[in-house]
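Chapter summary example: a protein plus 2-oxoglutaric acid.
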Amino acid sequence: MATKDSLPVKTAQQMAIDGDQPPSKYIFKNNNNNFGPLQTSPPFAPVPVIHVTRLSSTSDDRKTELTKLRSALTTWGCFQAVNHGLSDSYLDNIRQVINHFFQLPLEEKRKCFRETGSVEGYGNDMTYDDNQVQDWCDRLFLRILPEDERKLRFWPQNPSNFRETIDEYTKKIKSISVILFEAMAISLDLEEDCFAKYFTEERDVLQGRFILYPPCPTPDQVLGLKAHSDRSGITLLLQDPGVEGLQVLNDGKWYNVPVIRDALFVNLGDQMQIMSNGIFKSPVHRVVTNTKKERISVAMFTEPEPNKEIGPVDALVDEKRPRVYKTVKNYAVFNHECFQKGVVALDAVKI
Ligand SMILES: O=C(O)CCC(=O)C(=O)O
Ligand SMILES: [Fe+2]
């Protein structure tokens, strides 16, 4: 596996500092898998804003918010979560810690360099073949939970508060996710814990991807992150308050995701599309670059325990709406294998 994998000769950040033109392997190719041409400024996505506290309140607001949530997830597969209990200054501190790491000299960051054949660590995306288009970003990818599976050699020692900051943030992200999973179930008239129970077990997985998108001299030719849907159950993304870049595909058209300073951008991953029998969407998204501003983002991916079987929940399968997806296990690995073969994983698990 991954015999073609190699670490970047030069990080995207270093190329940006040196004023390099992006090498040819970074140039966007408009083939079928790219979901349409590269547009740097499509219209803004009217992605719904959901007040998290209202989802679990006892007031009348709750019903309205649950209806909004259901509509957001059946049409866009994503929303902006506000009133989630995390303050502006708390979120700024998370951004600062991640930014601190990326602004360290390369010799320091190199200590966390990923190894060939491994997705974890600092560097580029794993490469599977010579034709793979590279992303104009540097990332630190870590498996955060279960705790005993952490590969601490990839965890930054600098800044010194990195680990405790991420530990605390993980707990908060987990509790917000549970509120969201319960609300999703209620919005579909299901038992409250029917999704949440897959994400509240001891060996659930949570991965973090901390990304730096440096300025790029040719944003109309290079993507910060290729189009993909997430393999998670749910992804909570903290965006850079000062720079847009995230785009989401809806009905064959690309939209810019606006930045709301104190919001967490929530998108569903493939595993929730499967569990909801295709009612909720796992949206395809990508990131574009710009010539002037660096962008930082913090993505937390919540997944069920890999050995647990997941499939459409029974209550969402009936004669009118037959089962769309097979039952799957180890979806993350499966998704990875599909990616290597150029197959869309969600299509491969369709009945
Ligand atoms: O950086 C972003 O805005 C999106 C990141 C993302 O989609 C991912 O890491 O899966
Ligand atoms: Fe993503």
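Key point: The mean pLDDT is 94.
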